[in-house]
Design brief:
The structure holds two protein chains of two kinds. Helix content of chain A is 39%, strand content 19%. Chain A is of the alpha/beta class. In chain A, the strands form three sheets. A seven-stranded mixed beta sheet of chain A has the order 3-2-4-5-7-6-13, sandwiched between helices. By secondary structure, chain B is α/β, with parallel strands linked by helices. The chains are: A alpha/beta, B alpha/beta. The interface between A and B is medium-sized, with 25 and 19 residues.
Chain lengths: 407, 389
């Protein structure tokens, strides 16, 4: 009987109705984060509210510091990470931009910070809605960038992000982008894994020989001149290169331990097996796109969707191989890159660059859409698909087109 | 392809920044009088806002624009026709902010090139200070004390134009005296400065320094690691802690010497060094405590020995020492090595006393800037006069 009483309860997963922001906060709790800094800006501030609640309820034991600005917010966690703390941080829009100096030094110092970007349009004009230009601004600096489209994926990706970022082969920060409103402020049913499962997946953060500690006397970030910079940058390039395989490993482990499958970590393919044409995009626009695809397929149009998750590292070879299968490709950017090649969006420019060495290069169209949080509607998606079909038929048209614009 | 000329001006950070820039600029402007294009620049990686740190300016001149491009977009040229040291203590070598290791003052000189030094010392003293070079070169001395013209002050003692006059004599293919004089007049509009340049032109002479002459020491070097050899995260290991040192007489271990960076020593920043009278030291610890470079080693007998590999020559120890004449700053040209004074004293106290007295007695005046109001007014006529000696 004693044995019965001591029987180990199987860890139980439970389901909660929470927003994407709350899912990230729950991930912080499950990852047992040591230091969290905050400074309010919508939509990221929902995360700090949920974290504060977890701390106040005694569910999360961490240093929770509300800084006086985003710049300090990111600097504080950078230093905490250097002394061995697992850290979390986040911001949105111009708040993220205000932290820019701290954002540049974080990957340079190989700090495995995990941050949430509640994607928001950059000022001016002040707008709350989603645009991806905030997170994309750091794309060249050594940040790993990942986009998610559901609260469940936000939670899971945050746990994966810690595992990847804190892997000694990587030691680079990771920003998880969550679209403002559609993800940060919308509650959905999320499976919350038991602590034991997370513990089995996520090892403790070990900074090793880079730990700032009296027992490991080192100087970090000295002044260095042209004799050193290239070697330092080359080290970071090697770390980002290694991140690709570490991400693959982490998703494989995640699937084994959690039993939830994401397939190819770098991009999700939806109805692509027999597709003639596809759209490519990131984040929550997957929802209207998938709805529209289901409609169009009923009408006999073989349309698919490729949702890019990891923007850095960018899985160029795999993506080029995949997109080469289709007759034409439309890339939907919830961002802009003024004056860029063919005046297109950031994702379109990257995809074009990735396609250049490919054997099969279908026509590419760039769509700018859903800026400032404007809804991407099902008719918008249908219109873009029609244009992509026309491109597949060889019809000449503008490389970049704005969709959902009053004109 | 035409001919490319390069002149290097080595100077002391902040104290001589403007002086070096003016010499460098006026070389280019003088060459321009003859239709030669040129550029003037400071070595970008230097940190000339730090007191006394060796830093460099360069004047690159060519006979035509295409040739000039060969000398452009570089931090420093591969070789120079002339190196100018506007402070004679720089003859001991240069460790700048911009690179690692000690560069001999004559390192960039072409075979047969000329080292111009402003000094009151005889050639023998300067030759002994400079490292040996594999090929002969010429040494020319412009007589005078190190000039001072930094961020806030321009002590117009004609050092600039006297060097320009010397260049016209030593390398007439670069600039003629006439072009130098035209450039001086255009820059300063001062006929007296033109005269000073001409006098220097007339009086400058050279001696040839042979490969067997000079400091035989191998300058300390530093090998830059490959990218995959470096620790990641811009993290560098600290210098380990120090430990006890040995008494050369009793062989007893004691005291404390901190470990120091073996490849970044900084002592070429020094223009004067402390000499210590160990007989009168009261072991008050003030020099050891106040030294901004932690250069004092604590000896097993509780004395304080200024380590000359680490001393930048700031003079704080002399200023804080409460015992009269216990610590005395002496011009760096009076010394030819970095040996420990305490060891010398331990081995032979009587000879040390004589050595100390002789160093202090003949210590040439040395300061950064001036010690009292009106000193410049006294020095400037003497310097201008020395141009006419």
């Amino acid at each position: 009987m004693a044995q019965m009483g001591a029987a180990i309860e199987q860890p139980v997963e439970h389901t909660a109705l929470i927003t994407g922001s709350e899912a990230i906060a729950v991930a912080c709790k499950l990852a047992d984060v040591d230091v969290i800094t905050a400074y309010p800006i919508r939509p990221y501030d929902t995360v700090m509210q949920y974290v504060a609640k977890l701390v106040a309820n005694g569910e999360l034991d961490c240093e929770y510091i509300v800084a006086e600005s985003e710049h300090s917010q990111f600097e504080i966690v950078k230093h905490a990470s250097a002394v061995g703390a697992r850290v979390f941080c986040g911001s949105s829009g111009v708040g993220w931009m205000y932290a820019f100096e701290a954002l540049t030094v974080t990957p340079a110092l190989r700090i495995p910070m995990v941050a949430m970007v509640g994607n928001r349009a950059l000022d001016d004009p002040g707008a709350f809605g989603v645009e991806h230009n905030d997170a994309l601004a750091v794309r060249d600096l050594g940040w790993q960038l990942v986009w998610v489209d559901t609260a469940q994926e936000a939670l899971d990706t945050a746990l994966i992000a810690y595992r990847v970022a804190e892997d000694r082969r990587v030691f680079l920060p990771c920003a998880i982008s969550c679209d403002g409103a559609f993800l940060t402020h919308s509650q959905a049913l999320v499976k919350i894994p038991p602590q034991e499962t997370v513990d089995a997946f996520l090892p403790r953060y070990n900074r090793g020989d880079l730990l700032l500690h009296p027992d490991n006397p080192i100087t970090v970030a000295p002044q260095a001149n042209e004799d050193w910079l290239m070697e330092i940058r080359r080290q970071n390039a090697a770390a980002m290169e290694r991140a690709h395989d570490v991400i693959l490993e982490a998703y494989a482990q995640f699937e084994r331990i959690f039993g939830r499958r994401y397939g190819n970590p770098f991009f999700e393919e939806y109805e692509t097996a027999d597709a003639d044409v596809v759209l490519v995009g990131m984040g929550t626009l997957s929802t209207p796109v998938k709805v529209a695809i289901r409609q169009m397929r009923k009408e006999g149009k073989r349309v698919g969707f490729v949702r890019v998750r990891w923007f850095r590292p960018f899985a160029a070879v795999e993506l080029a191989r995949t997109l080469g299968r289709f007759a034409a490709v439309g890339i939907v950017d919830r961002d802009f890159s003024f004056g860029s090649p063919y005046l297109s969006g950031v994702l379109a420019t990257e995809v074009r660059a990735a396609m250049y060495p490919a054997v099969r290069r279908p026509p590419l169209l760039s769509f700018i859409c859903g800026l400032g949080g404007r809804e991407v509607t099902v008719p918008d998606v249908r219109r873009m698909t029609d244009l992509v079909y026309q491109a597949a038929d060889g019809k000449q048209q503008a490389s970049t087109q704005w969709i959902g614009l009053r004109e | 392809m035409g001919r490319l000329f390069a002149v290097e001006i080595v100077y002391r950070g902040i104290f001589q920044k403007t002086l070096a820039k003016n010499i460098s600029r006026t070389i280019v402007l003088a060459a321009h009088q003859e239709g030669k294009p040129g550029i003037s620049f400071g070595r970008y990686g230097d940190s000339p806002e730090r007191n006394g740190i060796p830093a460099k300016n360069f004047a690159i001149v060519a006979t035509d624009d295409v040739t000039l491009e060969e000398g452009m977009a570089k931090y420093e040229p591969q070789e120079v026709d002339i190196t100018i040291a506007v402070d004679d203590t720089l003859a001991k070598g240069v460790e700048s902010w911009a690179w690692y290791g000690l560069q001999p003052i004559n390192r960039l000189l072409k075979p047969g090139g000329t080292l111009i030094v402003t000094s009151k010392e005889p050639p023998e003293t300067l030759i002994a200070m400079a490292h040996r070079k594999e090929c002969p070169y010429r040494l020319a001395i412009v007589k005078g004390i190190p000039s001072f013209s930094g961020l806030w002050v321009y002590k117009d003692d004609h050092t600039d134009v006297r060097i320009l006059g010397a260049i016209a004599k030593l390398l007439p293919e670069l600039v003629s005296l006439e072009s130098v004089q035209k450039a001086i007049l255009a820059e300063w509009n001062d006929p007296l400065k033109v005269t000073s340049a001409a006098r220097s032109y007339e009086r400058i002479s050279t001696v040839t320094v042979e490969p067997h002459q000079g400091n035989p020491e191998e300058p300390y070097r530093f090998e830059l690691p490959k990218w995959w050899e470096m620790r990641e995260g811009i993290a560098i290991p600290s210098i380990p802690r120090g430990g006890a040192i040995q008494d050369p007489e009793s062989q007893a271990m004691g005291g404390y010497r901190p470990e120091r960076n073996p490849t970044f020593k900084k002592f070429t920043t020094r223009t004067m060094r402390p000499v210590v009278d160990f007989e009168t030291c009261i072991k008050c610890t003030l020099c050891w405590l106040q030294c901004p470079d932690s250069c004092f080693d604590v000896t097993p007998d509780g004395l304080y020995d200024a380590n000359m590999e680490a001393c930048c020559g700031c003079g704080v120890c002399e200023a804080v020492c409460p015992v009269p004449n216990c610590v005395t700053m002496v011009n760096e040209v009076a010394f030819c090595d970095n040996a420990s004074q305490w060891e010398m004293w331990k081995k032979d106290k009587e000879s040390y006393r004589k050595w100390l007295e002789q160093k202090i007695e003949h210590r040439p005046e040395r300061s950064h800037g001036f010690r009292y109001r009106g000193q410049y007014e006294e020095q400037i006529p003497a310097m201008i006069e020395s141009g006419g000696e």
